[in-house]
Design goal:
Layout lengths: L4 E5 L1 H10 L11 E4 L12 E5 L15 H18 L3 H12 E4 L2 E4 L14 H10 L19
Antiparallel strand pairs: 1-3, 2-3, 4-5
Helix pairs in contact: 2-3, 2-4
Length: about 150
C-alpha cells in the first residue's frame, strides 16, 4: 500500500499546521514532503507541502476535519443543512460524516482529510449542504422541483 501524504498547501499553511499540532519540523522529518505542480504555461507552480497521514488527527465531531479551519467549515455546512432542510444538527453531522468518512474498526474514520488548502474549500458551505443532502448526482442546482434527499444515515 502506498504511503499516504495529504496536501496542506503552501509553506505558510504548513507553518500554521505545525503550530496547531504543536510540532516542530525537526520532529516530523520524513513525514513532510513537497511537490511542485505545473503552473501557467507549463512553468513550475508554487511548491506545495504534504504531510504524512499518520500526523493527522480528527477535530471535533468530524473525523475528516484535520485542522481547526476544517472543523469550522464542516460546522458551517451542518448549520446550513439544519437551516435549509429543517433537519437536526445531529442528522446534519451524521450526513457529513457519511459523505467524507467511512466505518472503521474504532468508529468512523476519514475517507478524505480536509486540511490546509483542501479542494473542498473551492465550494461554499451552501453548495456542500445541498450536495451532501441530495447526493452528488442529484443535479439539485437545476431549476424545477427539488430532488428527493438521500435517506438519513
Amino acid at each position: 500500500m502506498p504511503v499516504a501524504f495529504v496536501c496542506v498547501g503552501y509553506q505558510s499553511d504548513l507553518a500554521r499546521f505545525l503550530v496547531e499540532y504543536d510540532l516542530a519540523e525537526e520532529d516530523v522529518r520524513g513525514l513532510i514532503t513537497t511537490r511542485t505542480p505545473p503552473g501557467p504555461g507549463g512553468a513550475p507552480g508554487p511548491r506545495e507541502y504534504l504531510v504524512h497521514a499518520s500526523l493527522l488527527r480528527p477535530h471535533g465531531e468530524f473525523p475528516c476535519a484535520g485542522d481547526a479551519g476544517a472543523l469550522s467549515f464542516c460546522r458551517q455546512i451542518a448549520d446550513e443543512m439544519a437551516t435549509l432542510f429543517g433537519i437536526t444538527h445531529q442528522e446534519a453531522v451524521a450526513r457529513i460524516n457519511r459523505h467524507w468518512s467511512r466505518p472503521g474498526p474504532g468508529g468512523r474514520e476519514p475517507r478524505v482529510w480536509i486540511v490546509g488548502l483542501d479542494i473542498a474549500y473551492h465550494e461554499t458551505p451552501d453548495f456542500w449542504a445541498h450536495t451532501i443532502y441530495y447526493g452528488h448526482d442529484s443535479h439539485w442546482w437545476v431549476s424545477g422541483p427539488a430532488p428527493a434527499p438521500l435517506p438519513p444515515p
